[in-house]
Design brief:
The complex is a heterodimer of chains A (260) and B (357).
Chain A: H1 7-30, H2 36-40, H3 43-76, H4 82-94, H5 97-108, H6 115-120, H7 129-153, H8 157-165, H9 170-198, H10 202-207, H11 218-228, H12 230-251
Chain B: E1 2-11, E2 14-23, E3 27-31, H1 38-46, E4 54-57, E5 60-61, E6 72-75, H2 87-97, H3 102-116, H4 131-143, E7 149-153, H5 161-177, E8 181-186, H6 189-195, E9 198-203, E10 206-211, H7 213-218, H8 223-229, E11 232-240, E12 245-250, E13 253-258, E14 268-275, E15 281-283, E16 294-306, E17 309-315, E18 320-325, H9 326-332, E19 339-344, E20 350-353
Parallel strand pairs in B: 3-8, 3-9, 6-7, 7-8
Antiparallel strand pairs in B: 1-2, 1-4, 4-5, 9-10, 11-12, 11-14, 12-13, 14-20, 15-19, 16-17, 16-19, 17-18
Chain lengths: 260, 357
């Protein structure tokens, strides 16, 4: 049986719910419904959705690629400077995204630290789709680092000991025991990272620019539309709301620690 | 095959220094109270903690090897089964880790499971298994790859009376048929007595005595050993009595015991009862009415002094060892050959099932 809650808590909870609900209601009220079909099938919307999908999924994949090993390192290794490294790994979470974008430009931009070598290899990052994915990955991979590190903390290390004593090499233990046991946390981190990448704006526009069909993700398209056609902006915004809500409902909170 | 291990390790302020030797085909029990460092020894043998010492198996040093290259099988306390793998995949794990193909690994794992855990479904997840079943699967996983040293860490801890009874024959069989050195870690003297050929007693990180149980019984090397050696052991058939009690019928006489709560009230064979000597009260006259259901008469056979405590061996039916203070020996005037009465409560007798046949 569920415990009953004091009325004050319920009242403030209602306030919290309204806080989220009102902006959505506002979007629904102000959307130019008669133009919806036309707006949804416009180039801006279709291209925006396509770029958003590619960029957010690419960012999630990149985040996994670097976030999981970094989380493992932070959770397991012990060396001087660990605290600094942990702070660095979480920096993108608190940094204003526009600062992240400028940082990326100074590192991977044409005149950036790695711009020359990257160009020599035929890699053009700024103002490309790949660049947009990197910008989104930069701000979203800390979610995976956090998830892996906290997962490691609650992992029963005896299981890894058992695996080693049964003949498993370090690599085999990682693949067959550690990572499978961390799978729920990694999945949770990946979903959060993907969601963060989907909503990315500042780092993307700074590092990758705003080119339709290349780097113009849904949020950028919404921002652009807002200046010329506010009605279109609300419709595009609603697309993002529906998409995000669908994912969250499909997961039923399973991957953010409140499984049902 | 033989094992010679000089283990020296320190974990924070706790230091373990122990030399353990065992021959091929021998089961040694590493016996000691909780916190004596038994698990530390297991981890050191398995290479899972840092350790300065020398571990020799069949004359080959293995202490420099990483855990995965040591030829041993460990059944950890509580099983430590991989929760994300089926029972079969758990048992196949040591083979798969060594590069054996899936099909062959699974068929060998399945054969081992058939022997040790025939009732466990191959695709069962560990969390659906009972404690006894999990321990059987863990045993199968520890031997499936044919290690040369088998380490069992507290195999029956956490199991109830029936779980232990079910596991004991499997443990006996596994230990008896394992072709190599077997080390059984336990804090349960009955388990050590019934499963091992020799005991190594570990206290506060040091070996205080090793030898056969008879050696320990004859000349206990420490207080703890004396306590173990002096444990009164009754083996026989348990019959229900009224009022939550039972009668343990042994070859030398009957003992009234408390009926274990988780055991059905049916006559049960091969029951072991243990009684601590300090729970036995010695009287010089027939005791008056009391709650003690066992009141036996006998001559004092022997008095052995351990510091302030004295062990009194009484030739009753069955024979008993009581532990009293030096003061009460003096006060009661206990001497060899004097006639005494010994009493103890039924509930002081601890019951376990599955004695040696």
């Amino acid at each position: 049986m569920r415990r009953r809650l004091p009325a004050v808590v319920v009242a403030f909870a209602a306030l919290g719910a309204a806080f989220v609900l009102l902006p959505v209601a506002g979007l629904l009220a102000r959307a130019p419904w008669e133009r919806t079909g036309e707006l949804l099938t416009s180039d801006v919307a279709i291209e925006g959705a396509r770029v958003s999908l590619i960029v957010s999924l690419g960012a999630a994949a990149l985040s996994l690629l670097v976030g999981v090993p970094l989380g493992l390192l932070l959770g397991r290794a012990s060396f001087p400077g660990l605290t600094v490294l942990r702070a660095l790994a979480l920096l993108p979470l608190v940094l204003p995204p526009v600062v992240a974008g400028i940082g990326l430009l100074t590192a991977f931009g044409r005149r950036g630290l790695l711009g020359g070598p990257a160009r020599a290899l035929g890699l053009e990052l700024p103002f490309t789709t790949a660049g947009a994915a990197i910008a989104a990955a930069f701000v979203s991979f800390p979610f995976i680092v956090l998830a892996v590190e906290s997962g490691l903390r609650s992992l029963d290390t005896r299981l890894e000991d058992a695996a080693a004593s049964l003949g498993a090499s370090k690599w085999y233990v990682l693949r067959k025991v550690t990572l499978p046991l961390l799978a729920p946390q990694i999945a949770a981190g990946a979903v959060l990272a993907w969601a963060r990448a989907l909503g990315e704006f500042g780092a993307t526009i700074t590092f990758a620019g705003n080119f339709r069909g290349e780097t113009q993700t849904m949020p950028l398209a919404v921002f652009e539309a807002l200046q010329s056609d506010p009605g279109a902006a609300t419709v595009l915004s609603l697309v993002l709301v529906v998409l995000s809500l669908a994912v969250l409902i499909a997961l039923r909170g399973r991957f953010v620690g409140v499984g049902s | 095959m033989s094992l010679r291990a000089e283990i020296s390790t320190r974990r924070e302020s706790f230091e373990v220094r122990a030399t353990i030797e065992a021959e091929e085909g021998e089961t040694i029990a590493l016996l000691g109270p909780n916190g004596a460092g038994k698990t530390t020894v297991v981890l050191a043998l398995a290479g899972l903690i840092e350790e300065q010492g020398a571990i020799e198996l069949d004359g080959i040093r293995i202490d420099g090897l990483p855990p995965e290259r040591r030829p041993l099988g460990v059944a950890f306390q509580g099983g430590a089964l991989f929760p994300h793998l089926s029972a079969l995949a758990n048992v196949a794990f040591p083979l798969r880790a060594r590069g054996v193909g899936r099909r062959e690994a699974e068929s060998r794992a399945s054969a081992t499971l058939s022997r040790l855990a025939p009732d466990v479904r191959r695709d069962a997840r560990p969390r659906t298994l009972s404690g006894g079943e999990a321990q059987r699967v863990a045993l199968a996983r520890a031997i499936v790859h044919g290690p040369r040293l088998l380490l069992l860490d507290e195999p029956s801890s956490g199991l109830d009376v029936r779980g232990r009874a079910g596991l004991r024959p499997i443990l006996m069989d596994t230990l008896a048929t394992f072709p190599g050195v077997r080390v059984l870690v336990t804090h349960d003297p009955v388990e050590a007595m019934t499963l091992a050929d020799r005991v190594v007693i570990l206290e506060e990180g040091r070996v205080t005595q090793q030898g056969t149980f008879d050696d320990v019984r004859r000349m206990p090397g420490s207080r703890y050993a004396a306590e173990l050696a002096g444990v009164n052991l009754f083996v026989g058939r348990l019959e229900p009595l009224d009022g939550g009690a039972g009668r343990l019928v042994t070859a030398e006489g009957d003992v009234v015991v408390g009926w274990p709560e988780d055991l059905p009230r049916d006559t049960t064979e091969d029951v072991i009862g243990t009684l601590r000597p300090s729970d036995v009260v010695v009287h010089v006259e027939p005791p008056g009415p009391s709650s003690a259901r066992n009141i036996w008469r006998g001559e004092i056979e022997d008095l052995a002094v351990y510091g302030e405590r004295v062990r009194v061996r009484i030739a009753s039916q069955p024979p008993l060892v009581a532990e009293v203070t030096a003061g009460s020996v003096h006060q009661l005037g206990l001497v060899r050959s004097s006639e005494v009465w010994a009493s103890f409560k039924a509930v002081e007798v601890e019951i376990s099932l599955g004695a040696h046949r």
